[in-house]
Each structure stands twice: as C-alpha cells, then as structure tokens.
Design brief:
Elements lengths: L1 H7 L7 H4 L5 H54 L1
C-alpha cells in the first residue's frame, strides 16, 4: 500500500518560513502571529491566576469575619 502511494505523491514545497526569504512579509506575518498568540495565552493564564488569587483572598476574608463574629458572640454570652 505504501509503495503504491509513494509512486503517486508529488514532492511538497516548503512554506516561506522554511525555504523563503527570512525578511519577506509572509515570514514577518508568521512571526507576528506567533507573538500575538503567545500574548493572548499569557493574558488568559494571567487572568485565570488573578481570579484564583481573588477567590482565595475572598475566602480568607470570609473565614476571618466568621471567626471574629463567633468570638464576639461568645464574649457576649459570657457576661
């Protein structure tokens, strides 16, 4: 089967990044696209991380509030 396909396949031509001029507009566009995708990835992951930190801080504050209110209610019942 592979010998049958090998006889019918034409040689592939590489893209401008591999075989073309390094300063061509196509290569510069590819490079910009890669940088843009990396920037979006950093933005999304940073947003996710900051949201997780926000939730952790909010939970910590809520636990402190509950602890303070329970201490106050204990103090009132002792008097």
């Amino acid at each position: 089967m592979s010998s049958l396909l090998a006889g019918t396949v034409q040689p592939l031509i590489a893209c401008a990044t591999c075989m073309g001029d390094a300063n061509s507009p196509v290569v510069q566009g590819f490079n910009f696209a890669v940088l843009l995708m990396l920037g979006i990835l950093v933005l999304v992951l940073g947003s996710f991380l900051s949201f997780i930190r926000y939730l952790a801080r909010r939970q910590k504050d809520a636990l402190l509030l509950i602890e303070e209110s329970s201490e106050r209610s204990r103090g009132r019942t002792r008097r």
